[in-house]
Amino acid sequence: NGEVIMKRILILCMCLLFLSTKSLANTDVVLDKIIEKDCSDLSEKLTEEVYDKNANLVIVNEKKESDIISALSFAYKNKAAILLIQNDGAYIKKESPILNEANRLKAKNVYIIGGPKSVSEEISDNLKLSGLLVTRIDGRDRVEVSKNVIKENTNLNPTDTLVISDLSNFNFIQAKMGYYLKNGYAITFVQGKKFEDSITKFAIDKGISNILIDQPTSVISSEYDEKLKQNGFKVTRNDYKSVYDANYVQNSDIKYSKIIFTEYKDIRTSLLASYVSLQKNYVNILVNEGNVDKTTNKLLTTSIQNGIYIGKKEENFEKLANKLDLYYKVEQK
Prior knowledge:
Elements: H1 2-25, E1 28-35, H2 39-50, E2 56-61, H3 65-77, E3 81-85, H4 97-105, E4 109-113, H5 121-129, E5 133-137, H6 142-153, E6 161-166, H7 171-183, E7 186-190, H8 197-205, E8 210-213, H9 223-230, E9 234-237, H10 243-251, E10 258-263, H11 267-280, E11 282-287, E12 306-311, H12 314-324, E13 329-332
Parallel strand pairs: 1-12, 1-13, 2-3, 2-4, 4-5, 6-7, 6-8, 8-9, 10-11, 10-12
Helix pairs in contact: 2-11, 3-6, 3-7, 3-11, 7-10, 7-11
């Protein structure tokens, strides 16, 4: 009888221990949201969230994803605020969103990333008439824009890393953008199916010795690895199975206080969120229409104080809130 009683007591203690552990893990988490259909309006909100004052403001067309990537690299390197804009008449008025933000920031310098077809000369002239010093970084195409941003951005040394991305697939860049910015990596673009000799010449001219390819061989041909190595470069290839795997690698070793959730199909919003997350010690986790991938599920078991969903659809936020309630007691704001 004594042994039976002891076994029952032991089982009861184990049950109590399990329940107490579960209740500790079920920490209250506030899940906030920003639902905004236009990236230009979203960038104004996020810039206001991050900066009270900044002498430098970077502007880029909200529809040019490769230019946005280049602009974010430039902005982070120069500790600048960034605005995604629409190339229309609203931006040449006296009360244009750019001038309003420049006045709020007390900015002195405006950097335009992209040519006149992306950000018109009228917009540039209007900014100059307002007393701002305007510098445009452009090129014949998206690839040349990225290279000119790298040239303008910094004097690279042989220990720096150049990330190359296929022009038709930015998802893997999106997944690790925060990692690239934090480490000061330069980013340029190629047509991944066939090797381009111009990338070798550019890297040699800039004194770069390290090349990082974070896309599978189905996107960027293995020919790049072979020929770059033949030219003396140290090439690192991460052949991720999915965008979520790349996103997990970026975030798994980071200590953070808040998670920003963005849609992997909404590249521009996600890129902006990566930039904001670095300023605020947050991380950006990719979801698919509010659903958390099994790979990034692992990140949700860590201790987070709160989270925010940034996207275009309210229903995706609701899906995410329901999903997170499996891990945490979520209070929706």
